[in-house]
Amino acid sequence: MLCESASVMISELHFQMDSVIAVVGCGNLNRSDDGAGPEVIAALRSRGLEAYGVRLLDAGTDGMAAMFAARGCSTLIVIDASSSGSDPGAIFEVPGRDLELRYQPSLNLHDFRWDHALFAGRQIFRDDFPSDVVVLLIEAETLKMGIGLSPQVTAAVAEVADRVAALVRSRAAVQQA
């Protein structure tokens, strides 16, 4: 359970957004901790974030969906699981430009991930693709077939949802200034 002081309530957001923020959760709910991104999206939906003009998308493993969701937005926030060898539940916040990856064509588009979408979206949509891209990664304990998150990743999902709410508030404050 989160401490009340750590929890960011979306109801505190009282602003008129001039431009849209897209939040995209990536991952496969059938592969244990890989479902962290979609679980963050579910948490944000339960907080009512969409009422403030924020686009929330559970993209699953569809990189193309992430690319199209970002088109026309001022800010894109991507959430996914990672497998870097760090402690399970560790959270990494990385500028999107640092993770853009040119797509190397294969026989199918299942290999086209969100990191490819960042690169391709910037090339295809140019000025209509957000320059403000933040990626939040949650270190997985396991990516094996299975339903449900490990306890460490479950706790990290709540922290990342709080962080996303804070990012949205900070972007809204900049827009109001």
The CATH topology assignment is Rossmann fold
Order of adjacent strands in the largest pleated sheet: 2-1-3-5-4
H-E order: EHEHEEHEH
Q: State the separation between the terminal residues, measured CA to CA.
A: 35 Å
Percentage of residues in helical conformation: 25-40%
**Poorly predicted ranges:** 1-18
Sheet-strand content, in percent, reads 15-25%
Task: Determine the structural class based on helices, strands and strand pairing.
Answer: alpha/beta
Count of separate structural domains: 1
- Based on CA atoms alone, the radius of gyration comes out at 16 Å
Q: Any idea of the CATH class?
A: Alpha Beta
Keywords:
Rossmann fold; alpha/beta; 5 strands; 177 residues
In a nutshell, what does this entry contain?
It contains 4 helices and 5 strands, in the order βαβαββαβα. It is an alpha/beta fold. It has a single domain (18-176), classed as HybD-like (Rossmann fold).
